[in-house]
Amino acid sequence: MHFGATTTQRVEGAHSAMKHAIESSGSLTRAFNSLDRWLRLHHEENSLQYENESISIDPLLTQDDKDRLEPLLGKVSQFALNTIKNELLRTTTYEACLCELRVNYNIPCCHMLPAKGPVILSSIPKRWLLFPDRDQLDSSHVIQNTASINTDNFISLKSKLYTVETRYMNFLDEQQKSALLNQLDDILTVPEVKLSDIKVPERIKGKGRPSGTKRLPTALERMEQEEKKRKMNDYKNKKKPKDVKKELTKSTSFSQCISELHIEDQNSKILLSYRIPANDIDQVYNPLSDGNCGFRALAFAIRGNEENWDLIKLAMNNQLNKRIEIYKDWLGYNVELLKQILESRASPCEPSLWFLSPDCAQLAASTFSVPIAIFDERNEQSMLFFPLETPPVHRRNPIILHFINGNHIIYVGMKSYTKVNWPVVNVQHATICRKYGLEDHWSRLFV
Fold this sequence. Notes:
Layout lengths: L9 H13 L5 H28 L7 H7 L8 H11 L11 H6 L26 H7 L12 H20 L3 H15 L30 H19 L13 E3 H4 E2 L2 E3 L4 E3 L9 E5 L7 H11 L5 H14 L1 H7 L4 H9 L15 H10 L3 E4 L7 E3 L13 E6 L3 E7 L12 H9 L7 H4 L1
Parallel strand pairs: 6-8
Antiparallel strand pairs: 1-5, 2-3, 3-4, 5-9, 6-7, 8-9
């Protein structure tokens, strides 16, 4: 009994209905009386519904529907009756039926109902009969040993037999009828298999989950296992730091130039920030050390060639002249010094014309509409810069420029969709966006 709760979780629904019926958490006597009154009322409503459905007939039923549903009227619940009436409009034959109506409600669907003639009462499961004890025993269509036969198979068998009968009656000549009867004879001549002749299975499957079994790994678990194997192979094949040689003017893969987060050179070691995951580095590019290394690293990241560093400076200088008020009045940068740096083409150049942070980093982010991440070994100057006016078209990792010993900049390329512990965002970014009404599209992606 579900107490009127027809949701997927009937226990909780019935519990909620009973709590509403009690109305108060007072004395035990009051709660008992409230619950008794509610149960009696519920029982009376059910009785009235049974009587109403057993004697009432839908006045909107057509004569054809009445003729076909006549064996069910007054014996089947109204819900099942209306459902079957709708299914009769699209009756057809389908052997592998998995209709939701049949699976969820155990009501004959359009694939099981006869295309013509009345719907027999024995095709309706017991749960939808108003008086199952009376109607199921009195029905002339039910065989004596029906209880031992699977209900679904029995209904499917009757549906197929009715289909065979319909085809037989619709045949135009005796030859087709004779061929059908011969096929039925072949079916009925199938030899009976004795249970004593059936071999016992070698291993009997017990109840519950078999012991000693393990489910198949998911795709994610397989990827993790392959990654562990790859890391183990890399660890076994890893060379010692003294054997690693690196040409500073060439782009090399991470596995070729880094051992224990160090880049070996003849005279010095280069230590990367702890925020950068070593296993996810795709490449490290060390540009020429001529004072323009920051712009050279940026040129390699954007244009794929460090020799285009002068074009990088030209684009940044155009952006500075276009929105000079942002960098002079809003951010308070030394615009005259920025212009000297960007207009210089000297190689090598003096230290006063080197790549500056945050000035050059913020200007580069706005010029090329890409985040710029500045890192250093001690994490003292590490900072993340976002474009001020350009919204993100799609998510992409920031360009990583890494300070080495405070006087050189290299480019660190990460693998796609790598998670990096990015440094703090430029402290001026949020303030400028709020003060001048700029939409902050970038912070939600990386903060």
